[in-house]
Amino acid sequence: MGFSKKHIFDEQQNQAALITKVLGHPARISIIQHISQNKCCNCNELVQNIGLAQPTISQHLNEIKKIGLLDQDAKGKNLFYSINVDRLNDCRRIINDFFVKTQINCCK
Length: 108
Hints:
By secondary structure, this protein is α+β, with helices and mostly antiparallel strands. It has helices spanning 11-23, 26-38, 43-50, 54-65, 85-106; strands spanning 41-42, 70-75, 78-83.
């Protein structure tokens, strides 16, 4: 496995890369959209609506949770997921800042 050189990049670069890596899979985009439209749902509901196997959905949920985009609430044996709106706004700002600053640099 390759050695990561994250330490040579600033915090914003590392954050933008992590966010876009998580968003870089269509299944994760679909999961995030489904959860946002349904406020709170569990893995079984995602399996039924997205059409991927339960272990696959669980793996994608874990990747999305790595950036803090999901809140989870245990109800009995089930975990229900919702979007962490504060973190969603943080992610949006990080990515938007990247594009705005890049565009400004291009126009100089």
